[in-house]
């Protein structure tokens, strides 16, 4: 009488987690909510994103800038002006290239479709992605997929990713860790490792994702509705540009750095003085992030994904206030473009150097207002078709970009 119900509950839970049952919890309504939720479970899961890839969504993959949902945010613009395909946002503060590489590797339905990827220069520090941030956003489910697929694809990339994951202090259990060790040495995983990871680890994680991946997600629809309601009914870029400037001025009155009032009050007002000339020695050309970014490019190439890369701007007034050399930005720009173009990734929207940068950023380092609008101008046509154009996926990958020599190359 005491233990019976407990035993039944445990058995039922085990059946739910380990039985090969496909739980249909991802509805069109859930996909629509997930598209703007920025929910960590959606990022770390697979079921919702792969369901969205079967519908009229094109992913925008990035980091914290995606949460700046003003009227000119792509989700607002897509809703107001009825884009044929809608953005599916994937990113959080702290996500960078390696997290997103493993994320893209887990998006099985991305193959042959389009994506947008936003590059943030500030990822490319001397130390690269912080271990704690990477471990927090790393998906155990996507990692099992990477391990099981390691017999295929590019061997140099698989070795790099496995070693990098281990070097960042990730541990998911002795069997998974052992499999990563083998991959990092260029070896195939053992039959036992494959059986255990496929039938036990991954099966359980997939069941959890199917059951809970779309449960009680963040809901930003009201925010998008409010933002879209501020836009005129007819799309006119010049008019929208004037509106963006007007709204930006209205919401950045607390400072002369063109930074939004809410961000300035919360993050900067009490410590603004300490940032004066604090970035005089910042450089973005020597970083392990370049190797992580190369792993991401491999994942896109393996999926034959057509990608629009967006180089995010840094607030020019913030650059001047902190004393950051302009060469830090221009040299980063040259280096990352070389890595992209030399391998066939030619669709690049560069917002790091525009003629009129006023109100291009909402805070110090994230797009907002006019920055979003400039990007929207490119996205508007790109979102007309979901399928990749084969001529735009003729990639020729170069493993040199996975080396320390490239990561530390400062000749730009």
TrEMBL record:
InterPro entries: DltD, LTA_DltD
Name of protein: Protein DltD
Lineage top rank: taxon: Bacteria
The entry's keywords: Cell membrane, Membrane
NCBIfam families: LTA_DltD (TIGR04092)
Family that this chain belongs to: Belongs to the DltD family.
Pfam family membership, one: DltD
Pathway in which this enzyme or protein is active: Cell wall biogenesis; lipoteichoic acid biosynthesis
């Amino acid at each position: 009488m005491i233990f019976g119900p407990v035993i039944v509950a445990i058995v039922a839970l085990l059946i739910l987690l380990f039985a090969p049952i496909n739980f249909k919890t991802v509805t069109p309504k859930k996909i629509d909510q997930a598209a703007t939720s920025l929910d960590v479970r959606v990022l770390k899961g697979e079921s919702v994103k792969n369901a969205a890839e079967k519908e009229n969504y094109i992913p925008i993959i990035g980091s914290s800038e995606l949460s700046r949902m003003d009227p000119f945010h792509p989700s607002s613009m897509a809703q107001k002006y009825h884009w044929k395909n809608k953005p599916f946002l994937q990113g959080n503060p702290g996500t960078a290239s390696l997290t997103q590489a493993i994320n893209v590797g887990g998006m099985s339905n991305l193959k042959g479709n389009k994506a947008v990827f936003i590059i943030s220069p500030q990822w490319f520090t001397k130390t690269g992605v912080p271990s704690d941030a990477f471990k927090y956003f790393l998906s155990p489910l996507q990692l099992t997929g990477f391990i099981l697929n390691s017999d295929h694809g590019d061997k140099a990339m698989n070795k790099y990713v496995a070693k990098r994951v281990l070097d960042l202090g990730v541990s998911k259990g002795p069997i998974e860790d052992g499999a990563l060790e083998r991959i990092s040495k260029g070896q195939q995983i053992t039959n036992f490792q494959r059986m255990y990871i496929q039938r036990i680890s991954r099966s359980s994680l997939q069941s959890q994702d199917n059951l809970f991946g779309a449960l009680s997600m963040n809901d930003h629809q009201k925010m998008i509705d409010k933002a879209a309601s501020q836009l005129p009914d007819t799309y006119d870029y010049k008019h929208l540009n004037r509106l963006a400037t007007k709204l930006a001025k209205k919401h950045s009155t607390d400072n002369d750095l063109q930074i939004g009032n809410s961000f300035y009050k919360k993050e900067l007002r009490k410590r603004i003085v300490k940032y004066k000339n604090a970035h005089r020695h910042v450089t973005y050309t020597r970083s392990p992030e370049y190797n992580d970014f190369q792993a991401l490019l491999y994942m896109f190439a393996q999926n034959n994904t057509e990608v629009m890369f967006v180089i995010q701007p840094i607030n020019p007034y913030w650059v001047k206030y902190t004393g950051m050399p302009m060469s830090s930005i221009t040299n980063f720009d040259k280096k990352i473009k070389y890595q992209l173009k030399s391998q066939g990734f030619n669709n690049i929207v560069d917002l790091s150097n525009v003629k009129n940068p006023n109100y291009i950023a909402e805070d110090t380092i994230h797009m907002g207002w006019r920055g979003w609008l400039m990007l929207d101008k490119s996205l508007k046509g790109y979102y007309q078709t979901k399928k990749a154009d084969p001529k735009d996926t003729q990639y020729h990958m170069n493993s040199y970009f996975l080396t320390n020599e490239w990561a530390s190359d400062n000749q730009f």
